């Protein structure tokens, strides 16, 4: 525990120092007065259940996004933001509740602009105006890119946890994502205005930003885990009540490995909304037959596989398969929580394998490269289980592994994956469960 806390403190100090250097360089040597961080995440199990009011079981990465800044003062009306991935491009925007999403090469800043709009709106509801002053800010991130970007960094990925580093053109680092961009913005705005916000409320503002400003109709998982994570634990999250139950990952002989396929994914396309729509269609059919005033069926979380079987004739095969995934995934996720609490890693691994098969066959959000990574990992002695993690269509896998088996896993991925990916190499990292969004000190010497 002490070592983990020390590692977080060191990473935070280095993140704030890097962001401060970027801030000074961008804003004529000025010093930031507020700083905050929020982590990326990886989901152990419970995929595409969050927008069905179900359960998810993610943990925060030990890698975070850092934001520093200061009020501009004087009569400045616009805020400015710069990020390491687009160093030199300073985006200006109005601090307002009705500010329009940015377009073109300024799209990356929408997570900031959107969060500012959400905080301004919330204050206005309480009758407060001028709650956020015009500010300057700078971002850096240790959160690796989610999935793709083998070829180029798409601007909308930045600040959703999909970060690039500049090195002879856009280049990516392996890993996955999300919530860290808007949750670090939220915590930063709270630091700037000395007005802390409840961590769940911060996550809800982040989700609204995704919907309205990034046009991704996401659930609440990414923002909630980034906002509320507990170091050392995965969180079983009830996406209806927003209650969270930390489950310690305390066995030192077992680790979590994240592997990036480097297959590009983009949840702002049509696939994610189509999956959501199929779930809505299935809920309507099940509710019509099985819902009652006493026990309404409002979401797939309220349904069982028997109920689904009962309405199978009213649904097309695709819709039925989508609902089958979600209903069975909720069951697996709760079983995985119990198994993890009992230290039964074999069962957790088996459930992860079943989750992957369901996401591949019923929900159809996997791709051949990810399936290959899961097969490679599953065939390594000492790997309990492996699956696609996150929204899908590329991205990363998560594997639960004996610590002793990590070298064999990395060697197998290195040797086997390029055969399935047309030569692309995967990148892996081992992670413990990191801390949630936090306000940080700005060192006085800055
Ligand atoms: C993406 C979304 F942002 C989440 O809300 C969740 O639906 C996930 O895909 C799938 O579990 O990351």
Automatic annotation (TrEMBL):
This is Galactokinase. InterPro entries: Galactokinase, Galactokinase_CS, GalKase_N, GHMP_kinase_C_dom, GHMP_kinase_C_sf, Mevalonate/galactokinase, Ribosomal_Su5_D2-typ_SF, Ribsml_uS5_D2-typ_fold_subgr. Keywords: ATP-binding, Carbohydrate metabolism, Kinase, Magnesium, Metal-binding, Nucleotide-binding, Transferase. Residues 336-418 form the GHMP kinase C-terminal domain. Residues 22-71 form the Galactokinase N-terminal domain. GO terms for molecular function: ATP binding; galactokinase activity; metal ion binding. Pfam families: GalKase_gal_bdg, GHMP_kinases_C. One of its GO terms (cellular component) is cytosol.
């Amino acid at each position: 525990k002490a070592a983990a806390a020390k590692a977080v403190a060191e990473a935070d100090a280095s993140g704030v120092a890097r962001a401060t250097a970027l801030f000074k360089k961008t804003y004529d040597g000025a010093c930031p007065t507020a700083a905050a961080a929020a982590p990326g995440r990886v989901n152990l199990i419970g995929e595409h259940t969050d927008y069905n009011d179900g359960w998810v079981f993610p943990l925060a990465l030990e890698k975070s996004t850092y934001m520093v800044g200061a009020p501009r003062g004087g009569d400045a009306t616009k805020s400015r933001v710069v990020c390491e991935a687009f160093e030199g491009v300073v985006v200006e925007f109005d601090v307002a509740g009705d500010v329009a999403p940015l377009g073109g090469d300024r799209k990356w800043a929408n997570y900031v602009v959107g969060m500012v709009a959400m905080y301004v709106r919330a204050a206005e509801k309480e009758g407060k105006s001028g709650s956020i002053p015009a500010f300057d800010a700078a971002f850096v991130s240790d959160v690796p890119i989610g999935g793709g970007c083998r070829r180029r960094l798409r601007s909308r990925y930045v600040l959703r946890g999909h970060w690039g580093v500049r090195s002879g053109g856009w280049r990516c680092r392996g890993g996955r994502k999300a919530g860290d961009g808007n949750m670090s913005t939220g915590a930063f705005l709270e630091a700037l205005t000395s007005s802390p916000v409840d961590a769940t409320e911060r996550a809800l503002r982040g989700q609204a930003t995704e919907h309205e400003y990034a046009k991704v109709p996401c659930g609440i998982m990414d923002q909630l885990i980034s906002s509320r994570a507990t170091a050392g634990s995965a969180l079983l999250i009830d996406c209806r009540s927003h209650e969270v139950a930390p489950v310690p990952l305390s066995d030192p002989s077992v680790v979590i490995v994240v592997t990036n396929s480097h297959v590009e994914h983009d949840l702002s396309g049509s696939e994610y909304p189509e999956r959501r729509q199929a779930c809505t269609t299935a809920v309507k059919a099940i509710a019509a037959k099985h819902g009652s005033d006493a026990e309404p069926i409002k979401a797939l979380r309220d349904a069982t596989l028997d109920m689904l079987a009962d309405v199978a004739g009213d649904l097309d095969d695709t819709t039925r398969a989508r609902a089958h995934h979600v209903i069975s995934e909720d069951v697996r996720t709760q079983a995985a929580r119990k198994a993890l609490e009992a230290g039964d890693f074999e069962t957790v691994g088996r459930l992860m394998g079943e989750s992957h098969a369901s996401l591949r066959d019923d929900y159809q959000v996997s791709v051949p490269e990810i399936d290959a990574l899961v097969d490679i990992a599953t065939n390594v002695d000492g790997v309990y289980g492996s699956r696609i993690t996150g929204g899908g269509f590329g991205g990363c896998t998560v594997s639960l592994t004996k610590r002793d088996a990590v070298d064999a896993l990395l060697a197998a991925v290195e040797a086997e994956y390029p055969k399935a990916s047309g030569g692309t190499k995967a990148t892996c990292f081992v992670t413990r469960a990191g801390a949630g969004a936090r306000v940080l000190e700005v060192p006085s010497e800055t």
